[in-house]
TrEMBL record:
Keywords: Carboxypeptidase, Cell cycle, Cell division, Hydrolase, Membrane, Protease. GO terms for biological process: cell division. It is found in: Membrane. It holds the Pfam family Transpeptidase. PANTHER family: PEPTIDOGLYCAN D,D-TRANSPEPTIDASE (PTHR30627), PEPTIDOGLYCAN D,D-TRANSPEPTIDASE FTSI (PTHR30627:SF1). This is Cell division protein FtsI (Penicillin-binding protein 3). Residues 644-702 form the PASTA domain. Its main location: membrane.
Amino acid sequence: MNFKKSILIRVRVVFILIALCSAAIPYKVAKLQMAEGDVWREKAETINFQYREVPATRGNIYAADGSLLATSLPFYRVALDPTIAKSDRYKAGIDSLAKMLSGFYKDKSASSYKRMINDARLDNKRYLVLNRKQIGYQGMQEMSNWPIFREGRLGGGVIFEKVEKRYRPFNSLASRTVGFLNEDEYGAGIEYSFNNYLQGQDGKALFQRLAGGSWKPVFDAEDVKPENGYDVTTTLDVNIQDVAETALRRQLTDRDAEFGSVIVMEVKTGKIKAITNLQRNTSGNGYGENYNYAIGDQGNTEPGSTFKLLSMLALLEENKITLEETIETGNGAHKFYNRTMRDAKNGGYGTLTIREAFEKSSNVAVSKLVDEHFGASPSKFMAYVDKVGLREPFGFQLIGEGKPYFNKPGEKGWSGVSLPWISIGYEVKLNPLHTLALYNAVANGGKMMKPYIVQSVSKGNIIEEQYQPEVIRKQIASEKNIKLLQGLLEGVVENGTAKNIANADYKIAGKTGTAQKLINGQYSRIYYTSFAGYFPADNPKYSMIVVIDSPKGFAAYGGDVSAPVFKEIADKIYALDIELNPDNQQEIFRAEADGTQLPYVKAGKAEELQGIFQQLGLKASAANPEEWVKTVAQDASVQMSVNDTDKSTVPDVSGLPLRDALFILENKGLKVNYTGKGRVKAQSISAGTELRPNATINLVLG
């Protein structure tokens, strides 16, 4: 075979192979279109069209009076399918639309917006995000009337993609209690604990995949609408919450403390009216709510002398003592085995009655009594811890409740000094909620209520879950001994370590606590201070605990640091609560005008006063409902004059009830002291004076 013939054979083989491949292509095309067409069309459909989740609108969180604590507000991302609009409408409207977009977003010129939309239309681009900035509902309503956009989604191609954001009308108020939920569905507070109700049920809708990987929603009959979440109504009172946070923040700042907590609870029901937790920010500048020390495990701390209430309960229940018998405390030091118990007072208290020992918070007296009467059977003393329900968590409605800790007889760590130290609140770890529950039970005649913070879960008028007051201990001690304990707590304020907060208008009952902090295995001179109690003592409505950790400065004890915060909050609650303080209701005064008796109120919020006059069938001059006004009787009617409180000067609060005066002045950054009852008769800083932040103003009521 010569060389030429060899080449010819090779060429023919290649030609035959090419011919076979060419014949196979039409066959494969026909097979794909005819035999396998349905399969591949289904795959293409799956790739380019997909059912995706449509998030449900999250439920709202409310305060007890219906005030909104958290809600989901709709925001929108604006996109456009520029190929939808018909040519004549597009040409007629594109210039105006581009100009309006430029004026609204203020980030590009009208010509830039026009060029961007025109280019997308020429490229047959079906989905164009006009601006990454999200707009609110009002903005969406405004844009819906613009050229091209007014033709809607099907006629103009506009797409308003809904994106919901969580919004808190009261900003940081009760922020840790309201809580949060992140993208990984981890969080804290009510948002996290009640997420199963709040989140609702997501729906599904058909989306089309476009060039660039974006997805465009398309209408489809099989779309499933999302079911919005349930609303959660709490027991919180926004006014009490605000008062508690303000008072705590001020004391933390003044004392340069690490953190503090306040819980206010309704005695008869166990409803939590306020919880605030403020911790020094990591930057060292100011305080924020970063952890719920009032309830969480990190808030479990040796309570100190507030635990002496349990010691007195055990001693009284065992009939071991009478309050008038005496005990020797000597020079304020007593040795138990290898450790010495000491009183806070240098030189000691000498001989005291047991009542005086409790009022003065003598460590030596209480530890000696408990050791004497329970030392041979410490388990008997610890049984009272179980009787009052302090050893286990309450099953509180917020996830993350801390578990109490008690050193137990017979276990590792128990020693001969354990019982004396437990009796005054050491070798014990409780969070503020557990301590408060004990004091609340004493205020409630011995009946211990389970603390709760959510009262209902609902959707519209339909209630899904209703939470009622729950008794967890019918009687923690005999009625006789409860009355004795109540008397002891009143004595602490009248004669003992908290006499600095005694109040002439109403009685406070409670107990101070000062616990040395354990640092590197040694008890230090850094303190955990507290005050737990209730008011009014003769008819308790609210119980409260205030804890402040590591306060700086002189006299950093519970009576000096935490008790004043308790009083400040209690004073303001007392002033705001008409049931407790009926003298501070909006009084009605009589005045004569043309011989007609006219009831009128001296000053207040226009909306509230107009409601009163309307109910009484009286004529009153019109005023903006949001304005503060003064009133005068004139020509058989009531005339309102605006009391401008928005100026950067000290406002005129004369004639206002205390609660309104406090609201106005504290929102101006002023510190308020007051004396008397009723309405404001005089103010120490004249109205119109230049406003100085953090200045103190004194009010005289009458």
